[in-house]
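Continuing the batch. This is chain 6 of the set; chains 1 through 5 are on the previous pages. Same settings as before, nothing changed between runs. Recording input and output for traceability.
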Amino acid sequence: MADSCEILAAIRMELQKKEGIPPDRIRLESSLFDFGLSSVKLVELLMVLEEKFDVELPEEEMVGIEMVEELVAAVNARMKS
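Output for chain 6:
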């Protein structure tokens, strides 16, 4: 089972790969919207995380997520359920 550090690393890697955002700019307290992510890009990020961690992240439950920390917690919670 992955821990929060692994989930954060996956988010950093994906945002660097797809958006060119330096990983050191992506912190738990960062807002996903500060990186200029559209709702489509956020859905794509969710899909990558679902596949990587073998979890289901329903879009309707992810709507209120704004911070990286909230996304990490959501993935972590789904892995434990």
